[in-house]
Write a structure and sequence with these properties.
about 80 residues, alpha+beta, 3-stranded antiparallel sheet, 3 strands, about 35% helix
Length: about 80
Amino acid sequence: MARVVVDVMPKPEILDPQGKAVQGALPRLGFSGVVDVRQGKRFELEVEGEATEEVLAEVHQMAELLLSNPVIEDYAVRVVS
């Protein structure tokens, strides 16, 4: 079995109110030096067999059709051990 991770993040030009809320809360909790926060989603998929090019192409399709909104989000697919 292989584990594939899909990270989904808002596109840079899209406002991220959740990220801004976290950024505003950090100094109130005593953390300093954080100049920006973007909040996204992470999906971990366990797939049968090896993470072949065909399997990764299918994961890309999953990300485009279900896991992300391509109008406002970017995604990245990677294999982890």
